[in-house]
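We close this part of the discussion by returning to an individual protein. The amino acid sequence and the backbone structure tokens for this protein are reproduced below:
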Amino acid sequence: MKAGVLALQGAFREHAEALEALGADVTFVRRPEHLAGVDAIFLPGGESTTIDKLLDSSGLREPLVERLRDGMPAFATCAGLIVLAHEVVDGRADQRPLDLLDVTVRRNGYGRQRDSFEAPLDVAGLHGGPFVGVFIRAPVVERVGDEVEVLASHDGAVVLGRQGPIWFSSFHPELAGDLRLHERFLTEAG
């Protein structure tokens, strides 16, 4: 499988390392032509307003939206979730989420950097015990639409889910030292 990683800003190298450890052929996506031949894409954590601006300056916004609307599987983590959301609370006035996930998210909903934490998560259908979620300035999912399948929650909030071929997490699975979520996504996307 050829897995793309949106490499405009954020934790893209960590996703690439996890994917390479699983045997995926990884491509860093920085320009529209990098989407060619990509079977699935990861949208990493980072700074969502910066990623939003870089989608425009790189020319990637429309080609990425087109590929995702055509059914390309994606896994959006933390800031990537904010980028794909229907609605962003506490975002910048000029921030334009891609409206590909029927969710409302609150930026930095769990607090600032000093409020970062780890929590064991019971993930539906994931064997081998809890998955440790690494929450760093993470968004809080405040609303999910009817077509969103919830895979894990923490303190009553959805932290992992999917809508069709698009997965999302408010935490950073690439920082957990546990490849099970990347592996499950690749298996289902393949």
Summary: Helices lie at 12-21, 48-57, 61-69, 79-84, 180-189.
